[in-house]
Predict the structure.
Amino acid sequence: MLAKRQAQALIAGMLIAAPAAAGVVDTLECRRDLAMADRLVHGVRLREPQIRPDDLSRACRLVRQNLEEMVKARGPMDRCMTGHDRGENVAQMDASIGDIRYVLAQKCRGR
C-alpha cells in the first residue's frame, strides 16, 4: 500500500522531468527554480526502490523526505509554468501530495 501510494506520487514528478516542453515563464529565476524542482523530483524517483513495506520505520522516513521535496518542487511549477501544463501538473502534484500525507497519517504516525 505504501509503495503504491508512493508510485502515484511519482507520476507528478515525471510530469516536470522535461519542463522545456511545457509552457514556462522564461526568466532566469524560473529556469533556475524549475531545474531545482527537477532535481528534487529526480531524488524522489531515486529513493522509490528503497521504500519497502517490511521496514516501515525506514519507509516512513523516506516518504517524509519525499513529501518535503515534492512540496518544494510544487512551488516553482505553480509559479513558473503556464496554461494547461501548469493546471494539469500542479493538480497532479496536489493530488499526489495529498496521497502521501494520507499514507503518512495512516501508516507512519509515531514512526
In short: The chain has four helices and no strands. Helices lie at 2-15, 28-47, 56-80, 83-107.
